[in-house]
Amino acid sequence: MNEDVPINLDEERSPWLKLARDAYESSTSYLDANYRRQWDRNISLFQSKHPSGSKYHGSQYQHRSRLFRPKTRSSIRTNEAAVTAAFFATEDVVSVYPQNDSDEEQRASASILKHLLQYRLTKTIPWFQTLVAAYQEALVFGTVVSHQYWEYKEEKIKTRETVLDEAGNPVLDEEGNELEDVVEEKRIVKDCPYIRLIAAENFRIDPAADWLDPIGTSPFVIEIIPMYLQDVMERMRNIDPKTGEPKWKRLKLGELLESSKRTEFDSTRQTRQGKRQDPLTDRQESISEYQTIFVHKNIVRKNGEDWIYYTAGTQHLLTDPKPLREAYPHLREGERPYVMGGTVIEAHRTYPTSLIELTQDLQTAANDIANQRTDNVQLVLNKRYHIRRSANIDIHALKRSVPGGSVMMDDPHSDVAVIATPDVTASAYEEQDRLNVDFDDIAGNFSQGSVQSNRMMNETVGGMEMLSSNANSMIEYMIRTFAETWIEPVIMQLIRLEQYYETDEVVLQVATNRAEQENKEEPGFYQRFTGPETDNLLRHEMTVGVNVGTGATDPVKKIERLLLGIRTMGEINPDLINFLNQGEITKEVFGALGYKDGKRFVAEEEQPRIDMLVGQIEELSGAVQQLMDQGAAKQIDAEARVLSAQIKGQSEVQAAKEKAMGDITSTQISTDARERGDIMKQQVGIIEARIKAEKNDIARGELILQKEALVHKMLLEEDAAIGVAPGNDEGKQMSDVLMNDKYGNIPGAEG
């Protein structure tokens, strides 16, 4: 820090304090003028309440229908369910890849880091609640902000131990009692990474920041942290072990309460509570230690470097400024420990439009139609009356409209006139259906309202798929945007936190064991990368990938696309099937079906048959060599022939070995060909069933072509199984089999 910049707690004109105050006031003023009202409206619509300023809050609607159709909340819940299905179908949360895949050490580092993250995101970090809440926040406000940091806390425990002499015997006092000494030990209470979501109203950045990286390009970042007074006082009492001074500067109680009062009210927080009592500011506590103090965490850029310090509101400094890289050494150059993401990409706008804002007018129109129709139905069922002024009528009995009741009046014909209200017309319901369709179209929902409004399309399975495909595409777009803008940067910061701060030996051992099991390495393969060199191993540059893709919201289509990819690979090159990762495929299939892991459904994989054959060949070769070395004269005929071949010449022995290897290989090829033929027969049967069920001529034609190709390939496999070369004239021709075989009955074929 620059020495000629004085920092004085009691001096109100401190440049650091003035900088924090000016940044907070300017950003808050811009936020109040441009976003505050829209945020309050979004929260009300999310809570299925009419927003502030709505006509339904007026006195003229006091006795009229004021229903709220929860279309907005329904769309949010649909998106939350979709993001849950997309990210939590399998037990694997993320994938970590080395930048240099050929480096053995980087591969080991990536595998261990993956399982470290897996452990932290399932054991210590409430990842499910955090991710769903972050997605919800992005849908409501347009953005979500989170803070990633490492929490470390230890406490001192005093124990009494018996004093021993040099011989190890207890030391006694004058009265013969054993002397005891008080020993102070340290116990780790917290030592793990954290992800903390920050409410939109508690975060400030410069409105002119770059929309691609608002947090990184803003000259300042301010987080408003509500804390209990007792926690603030504890931070003031704690001693920094490095400097011996209190971690936070000591302020008087009156100074803390005064600084907090100036920033305590927030309309967005009040709206979030549903116009109820604000738990942070409106409580009347008899114990002052439980009062809420608003502490500002300031990160400001000065002279090209980021500085961090805390203030009590905007009135008093709590800490001296220090470089950000000292507080967060794991961050890259220019990076900050906050991530801002969203679900909608809107160019050149720091706060993009939220999903609720996109649909707010349609939600208002749907409410108006529903309330007017409700009022009309009530008027049809309970008539409106015109009563002559000063008429002698029992008005209360008339208003009650009790079935079978009577109303006293002087002249029923002239004193009261019944106003007939026509019933609701079909146009009101049709308009409601069109509003539902428009709302679902922009929100990406596939609801019953969309089905009922498209009667011609929902009568066929294809029509239903067309209706749902557009909705799924919209939801998948928002999920992918959310993954790119928030999840991946957050996971990347978690990786760096693990690289710099992870010291738990138990967690490291668990991650190492799981890496060995997943990669099927020999025991101890990853152990050689641990120990004193663990820090250097884990600090390699990594690439992170989130396990979600297109089609992740529909489990049926997810499995269909996976199988389509496998079948396509098999058609291109059947040998590629042998190199597929069976464990990952099992995990994806059972994950789409609702099981996080399919290990309990699948037995341990057996060794491939080729390995068994190679082992047998090596065994036989070793036995033959042993017999030749021993020079046995009286063996079975086969052994004698081998010895004779050895006497005649090494070349003949080599030729015999090659012939034996060729026979084994041909037998293996024939066996594999038969198995592939059985698989293709099953595929032909499936295609025949699809041909019978398909009504579309074009699709049926494509299926017929697929069947013909499979039949031709199956015939080639049969030739290989019986040892006939594909070009041999003695083998079967495709035309002969198509005419005679049971698969030759192809619709539209001639001959």
Task: Record keyword descriptors for this entry.
alpha+beta; 3-stranded antiparallel β-sheet; 25 helices; disordered N terminus; disordered C terminus; 6-stranded antiparallel β-sheet; 13 strands; flat; single chain; 751 residues
Structure description:
The protein is built from 25 helices and 13 strands. Strands 4, 5, 6, 7, 8 and 9 form a six-stranded antiparallel β-sheet that branches. The protein has a three-stranded antiparallel β-sheet with strand order 3-2-10. The protein is 50% helix and 13% strand. The radius of gyration is 38 Å and the shape is flat. The chain is α+β, with helices and mostly antiparallel strands and 751 residues long. Helix 4 crosses helix 17.
What layout of secondary structure does this protein have?
Layout: H1 15-34, H2 36-46, H3 71-87, E1 94-98, H4 104-124, H5 127-141, E2 144-162, E3 180-198, E4 203-205, H6 214-217, E5 220-228, H7 229-237, H8 253-261, H9 267-272, E6 292-302, E7 305-312, E8 316-317, E9 322-323, H10 324-327, E10 338-341, H11 355-381, E11 384-387, H12 395-400, H13 412-415, E12 416-419, H14 426-443, H15 448-452, H16 461-501, H17 505-519, H18 534-538, E13 542-546, H19 555-572, H20 582-592, H21 609-630, H22 637-648, H23 650-693, H24 697-721, H25 734-740
Antiparallel strand pairs: 1-13, 2-3, 2-10, 4-5, 5-6, 6-7, 7-8, 7-9, 11-12
Helix pairs in contact: 2-11, 3-5, 4-17, 11-14, 14-16, 19-20, 23-24
